[in-house]
Amino acid sequence: MLILIKHLTEFGKEMIIKKLIVWLAFRKLVRQYECDLAFTPMIISDSFIKSLKARDSDFTTCKEDRPLIVQFAAKNGKEFADAAEIVVPYSDGVDLNCGCPQRWAMAEGYGACLIKKPELVKDMVNQAKSRVNNEDFTVSIKIRIHNDIRETVDMCQKAEKADSLQCPVIANGDINSLEDVQRIAELTGVNGVMAARGILQNPAMYSGYDNTPLDCVQKWLDISTSLGTHYRCFHNHLIYMLERVLPRAERRIFNALVSSSAVMDYLKEHLGI
């Protein structure tokens, strides 16, 4: 899936939101609910470099959409560095995806297959850092834990020597509430916690809400309308947001709606929005 960071003063950590299916409109929404750092979906660097159409399709931002990390899938250092160079003016860092387990990605040399190639990852990080030449621009890696934890430690140490992480470590997975954030932060001692699916269901989760508040739904309507969000994306996000708000029978009705006007009419009639 897609990501973001917030300082947790209660336990001195940071919170992040991650989400592959979410683009600018959703990032603007979660930033209103104590999500301080967002990651883009995984972008294929080769297409991004070569095609203006791919860049326009995969990467949209605005001046309020900061801080922002752009996540790339790349298979060599030049490719990763070229992509990083393009987004420097519009972001605060790049992230190399070394964790995607999808078969197509691994077959192409992307994602989780890279965790078995620590020297290649080190070179990719080095090339990106050298090309960007900006101390404030971050280069990070997203990894999976190896079956042998010693391999994970070795990979992280190599990346650290390439100045990828000065040991901020972010935990990701099964974050569905603020209580989960606190539990994982205290259990692992990580520097930050990242959420994806939990944020889909409740974009206001980092602000302590157990379910999506109606004012969050209203803000989504306003933001998505102002940005001209495609109906499918607009509706799908509402389906997630209202999953724990609407009774099952009502969810079936809402999920079957086929137009923005039908959605607006339903929300006005049933939720007073």
TrEMBL record:
<feature type="active site" description="Proton donor">
    <location>
        <position position="100"/>
    </location>
</feature>
<keyword id="KW-0819">tRNA processing</keyword>
<keyword id="KW-0285">Flavoprotein</keyword>
<feature type="domain" description="DUS-like FMN-binding">
    <location>
        <begin position="24"/>
        <end position="162"/>
    </location>
</feature>
<dbReference type="InterPro" id="IPR018517">
    <property type="entry name" value="tRNA_hU_synthase_CS"/>
</dbReference>
<protein>
    <submittedName>
        <fullName>DUS4</fullName>
        <ecNumber>1.3.1.90</ecNumber>
    </submittedName>
</protein>
<keyword id="KW-0560">Oxidoreductase</keyword>
<feature type="binding site">
    <location>
        <begin position="196"/>
        <end position="197"/>
    </location>
    <ligand>
        <name>FMN</name>
    </ligand>
</feature>
<dbReference type="GO" id="GO:0102266">
    <property type="term" value="F:tRNA-dihydrouridine20a synthase activity"/>
</dbReference>
<keyword id="KW-0547">Nucleotide-binding</keyword>
<dbReference type="InterPro" id="IPR001269">
    <property type="entry name" value="DUS_fam"/>
</dbReference>
<keyword id="KW-0288">FMN</keyword>
<dbReference type="InterPro" id="IPR035587">
    <property type="entry name" value="DUS-like_FMN-bd"/>
</dbReference>
<dbReference type="GO" id="GO:0050660">
    <property type="term" value="F:flavin adenine dinucleotide binding"/>
</dbReference>
<feature type="domain" description="DUS-like FMN-binding">
    <location>
        <begin position="164"/>
        <end position="245"/>
    </location>
</feature>
<dbReference type="Pfam" id="PF01207">
    <property type="entry name" value="Dus"/>
</dbReference>
<dbReference type="InterPro" id="IPR013785">
    <property type="entry name" value="Aldolase_TIM"/>
</dbReference>
<feature type="binding site">
    <location>
        <position position="71"/>
    </location>
    <ligand>
        <name>FMN</name>
    </ligand>
</feature>
